[in-house]
Design brief:
Elements lengths: L22 H21 L4 H8 L7 H25 L1 H21 L3 H10 L3 H15 L2 H32 L3 H18 L17 H19 L1 H4 L4 H23 L15 H17 L1 H9 L2 H4 L7 H20 L1 H8 L1 H21 L4 H28 L6 H29 L10 H25 L8 H24 L2 H5 L1
Amino acid sequence: MNGTPASPDDARPGQDPAAPASVTAVVGLLVLFELMSGFLQTGITPLLPELGEHHGIGDSTLNWIVSVQLLAGAVMVPVFGRLGDLYGHRRMLRLAIAAVAAGSLLVALAPTFPVLLLGRVFQGALVALLPLEIALVRDRLPVEHARRAIARLVGALTLGGLLGAVVMGAAAKAVDSIQLVLLVPALFALLCVPVSFLFIPESVPKAVGRPDWPGAALLGLSLLSLLGGVSRVDHDGWTSAGVLLPLGLFAVLMSLWVRTELRCPAPLVDLRAMKGRGVGRLYLVSFFFGVMYFGSQSPNATFLAADPTTDGYGFGLTALDISLVSLPGAVAALFTSACTALIARRLGYRGTLLAAFGLMAAGFLGLACLHDSVGEMVIAVSVCGAGVGAALGAMPTVIVEATEPQHTGVASALYNNVKTVGGAVSGGVVASLLASHTKPGGTTPYEGGYTAVWLLCAVCGLCAIAAVAGHGRGGRTGSVLGVLGRRRTGWRAATAARRRRAAGSPETSAG
């Protein structure tokens, strides 16, 4: 991003050659939005125990603070993306930021827990910011400049995530009121609303047609049914009518949604992107990844905050302490994510995924077996973080390479949605596990509830390994086994050639 306008020769078809001269300033504004996005997405995690105390809810119910936002995001990402294609990505970016700001204020000032969850629904627009920004820079900048801009945006999102947990933890230690602490990210989001009206050029709409409102409505209703069913598990159990009926409705609505999307000429989510060399198996891996990535955030925080004298486990950590314990894992994720290309040169991208999910499974197994000291948990969280970073870096590449060329863009968005849904579903499953290990009428789970959650995440890691290994069989693969197999074939060919030369075979003489 050298600050010079794109020349007409460099512009892609449909790109405005008269892009603003101050490209660096424009990208800088988008970087600010991603800093805000990362800050809000991770900043609430160390505050979950205090939010539970403030609203009088148990540890199992706290998972819905994360899950509701993820479910809302799973609907908002395709809706905002499609509307941006039709009416301009800058317009939808402004609406998304305004929704995030309104939701952040609701979360900070919520008098009751349902109002807080409503604010988290509005904050679901956070996950739509990056796709809209990527569409803007790809539309307005030449290819190389756009790639550098996207790298800056992703880096800003990661940096914002690192800062969010630490800054919010420090604010919670300095200020006694949890509502005042939550006003910090709310003010950050409010600042971004007027900034979004400065300098940023509008994209050139290229899509035609109308929004797929039936698809959006069916997707939203199906996810609401899923949320309604899973939310009753911790109270009624998996076999109750209050759980099975909403889950059955979810299955019916999802089948209708799939039929609608396959028949629609301009669908909300182009499910044709799931065609390819076993790519459906990779979306299952994405679901498992979402369960591990999002499902452990709330339990880790509440376990660290538990009082060992009354609960029999935990360390009684403050919000700042929780953020500092989680920081090594975040740094490990940042490092392995940045080094994904280097790792893949040695192992291949599927081999990198196998190693990533192996690290995550090992880390969660370590948490389940060794959580008697903060040091043990820091090591386990760091191992998990290293796996998370490698998986974040490798999954999009593996999915895109397994997808038909005309569907690669849709495939990346679909991967993010499946991962988000996995995280949302994990909220209900984790809540039921913790609730099943809680005293009747109590709110604090037994230690065994947390062990069950970590074992669940470890099992998901093993399932992801099996799915990735199965996907690599028989096709173009970058797995460790594939690399070793190709090397062994090469060694055999070289040995046979040496033997022919030593014997003076006619094949060698002719060569």
